[in-house]
Automatic annotation (TrEMBL):
Protein's name in the database: Uncharacterized protein
Protein source organism: Bauhinia variegata (Purple orchid tree)
Top-rank lineage group of the source organism: Eukaryota
Length: 519
């Protein structure tokens, strides 16, 4: 629209219309036609989206009616007109921003829906690259058992989850033997000789051994703790009356070969499996006893494990008031051990014993709970053992005297380097609670605790789940328990000869009764 400037009455005051600007009438008369933008005075907020009202209220509030009127009549140099231009520009920017947000939101929704649709179609019509087989699931069962129960949560400094992924991808598991091989390889990565895999038959054999019978040669074995030229398997103990004991094999002897197979790189439980076998079968052993090498052929037999032997020893004294010592030899911790110890104590008490001697020499351990129960028999109260993991003390096993049977009589405990595992827990509890005096030599030093976990196919894992500390917080692993006094050398291991050493003051093995029970 064009406005004729001369049509404006001369009496019309420019100063009254356009504040702050000094225009003269002569300046206006020189303009012929001026193009001005017309603001539609009819625009209303009522037609706008209510949620955008807050964007419009602010610019409208400073646009007065006079400013509308001025800008309809005067050129762009009018300050009010410039304000309106800024308002229009601002409104356009705001409207564009709102529209952009709406369009962008709609576009984003469409993209997300499209991606989800593609993924759904792909999931329905595509096939997985591989699926877990029955053998994979058995391997994963073993992996989870170690993940949850193993004492070392660094898993010998490796990523346990990454090992699982690599094994499932790289290890052949097409049949049961390959799966067993993969499980053994996984356990070997932990570098722990006490954590091992048991096939179904070996697991069955282990259970029969803890129940009181085992077919073999009657040997308990361990690993040598020296780096000498004959490092390998060491005899911890030989079961009294068994094939190995009758052949003269002693604690501390080194097994160099089994059936002409060197034991230098043989695992502990591989050797144990080779020593066991069907009743009546033969096994050839090469034994280093001191400096002498022996080649022995032994016949396997069913070794009945009666864990307790006892005897009453009467010592010479004046009159009828002679000392009576109850001697109890505990050879293993099977499921009958605590019951047999109670029976022996009651039998000896019926003979009016004055003191007890508990012989744990060459006892290589067995069931951990049985060791705890036997400790409760001798203690009226106190801590038996601290169970520890990688973070410290996890549990405390103690007694309040509820199971106590023999807490008043003097007690001496005999130990040697064949005393291991549960035997060491028992000896440590009796020593640290000042219930008994220990005689002999330092014990073997097995301070780790294993638990057996059965798998779904009948096999099992023996897993190191914890270490233990004695009540005095002594970690005996690879160190052993140090006795209070040594025993004379040599000192007999059977009950009859033991009584003779106490009865004959002139014998080389004699131990004074006062020394035996005195601190």
């Amino acid at each position: 629209m064009e406005v004729l400037a001369s049509s404006i009455p001369s009496a019309f005051s420019l100063h009254s219309i356009c504040r702050g600007f000094n225009f003269s009438t002569s300046q206006v008369s020189q303009w012929k036609f001026l193009s001005v933008q017309i603001v539609d005075s009819r625009f209303s907020l009522t037609n706008r989206d209510s949620k955008n009202v807050f964007l419009l209220h602010e610019p409208v509030s400073w646009m007065s009616k006079s400013c509308f009127l001025q800008c309809r009549l005067f050129p762009r140099s009018c300050g009010c007109f410039l304000k309106w231009r800024r308002y229009v520009s601002r409104r356009r920017v705001l409207d564009s921003s709102v529209n952009f947000k709406k369009d962008a939101s709609l576009l984003l929704v469409r993209i997300v829906v499209g991606v989800m649709l593609v993924m759904s179609v792909s999931f329905v019509f595509s096939k997985p690259s591989w699926a877990l087989t029955e053998e994979n699931l058995l391997f994963l069962e073993a992996w989870r058992t170690i993940d949850r129960a193993y004492i070392d949560k660094s898993f010998n400094g490796q990523s346990w989850f990454k090992y699982r992924e690599n094994a499932l991808r790289d290890e052949p598991m097409n049949n049961r033997e390959e799966t067993y091989r993969a499980i053994r390889k996984m356990l070997a990565s932990l570098d722990d000789p006490f954590t091992r895999f048991l096939e179904p038959e070996r697991f069955k054999s282990l259970r029969s051994g803890t129940q009181g019978a085992l077919t073999g040669v009657g040997l308990s074995i361990g690993l040598t703790k020296t780096d000498g030229p004959h490092s390998g398997l060491v005899v911890i103990s030989a079961s009294p009356g068994g094939p190995a004991s009758r052949a003269g094999i002693l604690a501390g002897d080194v097994i160099l070969a089994i059936d002409d197979t060197s034991t230098e790189s043989m695992g502990l439980y591989d050797a144990a499996e080779r020593l066991q076998g069907s009743e009546g079968s033969s096994v050839a052993l090469t034994i280093l006893s001191g400096s002498e090498v022996k080649n022995l052929a032994l016949t396997r037999e069913k070794v009945s494990i009666n864990p307790v032997k006892s005897r009453l020893c009467k010592l010479p004294a004046s009159g009828n008031d002679y000392p009576r010592i109850g001697y109890i030899k505990l050879t293993s911790f099977n499921q009958n051990a605590s019951r047999a110890i109670k029976e022996a104590i009651n039998t000896l008490r019926s003979d009016n014993v004055n003191a007890f001697v508990l012989d744990l020499r060459d006892n290589s351990g067995g069931l951990f709970p049985e060791g705890i129960e036997i400790a409760k028999i001798w203690l009226d109260k106190g801590v038996i053992v601290y169970i520890c993991d990688s973070r410290g003390v996890r549990d405390i096993l103690d007694t309040d005297g509820g199971s106590a049977l023999a807490t008043s009589e003097p007690l001496a405990v005999l130990v040697n380097k064949g005393t291991a595992s549960a035997s060491e827990i028992l000896a440590g509890a009796l020593k640290d609670n000042k219930r008994a005096i220990l005689f002999g030599e330092p014990t073997y030093g097995k301070g780790k605790i294993q638990s057996v976990f059965g798998l779904s196919d009948g096999s099992a894992l023996v897993v190191t789940v914890a270490r233990y500390e004695t009540p005095a917080h002594t970690d005996i692993d690879k160190v052993g328990i140090i006795p209070d006094h040594p025993l004379p050398t040599p000192f007999p291991k059977d009950e009859d000869a033991f009584c003779y050493c106490l009865q004959d003051p002139a014998s080389s093995c004699n131990v004074n009764r006062v020394e035996l029970f005195s601190r």
